Amino acid sequence: xxxxxxxxxxxxxxxxxxxxxxxxxxxxxxxxxxxxxxxxxxxxxxxxxxxxxxxxxxxxxxxxxxxxxxxxxxxxxxxxxxxxxxxxxxxxxxxxxxxxxxxxxxxxxxxxxxxxxxxxxxxxxxxxxxxxxxxxxxxxxxxxxxxxxxxxxxxxxxxxxxxxxxxxxxxxxxxxxxxxxxxxxxxxxxxxxxxxxxxxxxxxxxxxxxxxxxxxxxxxxxxxxxxxxxxxxxxxxxxxxxxxxxxxxxxxxxxxxxxxxxxxxxxxxxxxxxxxxxxxxxxxxxxxxxx
Length: 291
Known about the structure:
Elements (H helix, E strand, L loop, with lengths): L3 H8 L3 E4 L2 E4 L11 H13 L6 E8 L9 E10 L3 E10 L2 E11 L23 H6 L10 H5 L4 E5 L15 E8 L10 H11 L21 E12 L9 E11 L2 E10 L2 E14 L6
Antiparallel strand pairs: 1-2, 2-4, 3-6, 3-9, 4-5, 5-6, 7-8, 8-10, 9-12, 10-11, 11-12
Helix pairs in contact: 2-5
């Protein structure tokens, strides 16, 4: 039986159709639309196929929701191949239109000035419950019609640092959230590559980041009065990392205004700040029709 980690690797491994044109498959991971992390991870992987350097930044816009029933075509434009930096533009195309676009920059690793914030003081992952254990404790609150999707295993393991609030009875909270994350199994040597690890990190960088800005309002992705969607996403890779080792993902929201929320993330591994993320999301309240 295929493991969840191998399923994720297969999802982020694209089929080459033509030079710089690739096809990725879609999976129903979060509902009717393609999960944004899937497109982020596949787009980064497509760009990585055109260079042997690791990525250092990605800047992306989500233009349309993706169809989970259809594959996605990724077209890579080679904008620059310099001595220090390589620049790529990626378009994700589905049903004849561009649903996502990204600029990706790659760089040769080099030594230089070195500084970082102090790593947060949080419990070790081994002392925390995983997401599945926490969800088991909430089953009595979960409506029968969504119980299967609520309990479905993710392709990565999450261990929240803070106490998890009942999502079916949300209350206002501070705009901060942290969890540990890694793949369920170690990545085998024959598949191990920097590009794959970065693509997996891009995939799980989208989990819960946008919803951090909902916390002060006592809302979440289940709130019936809320329309929410990712607008853009940026990732900065600072240092080498492994997606199959525990990563502390620390998130905070700084502002919600004009029906949008701005969220920042920092990923820590072995005391090193290895990755940073930024995402703005749509947070639009809508009227609920009554019978």
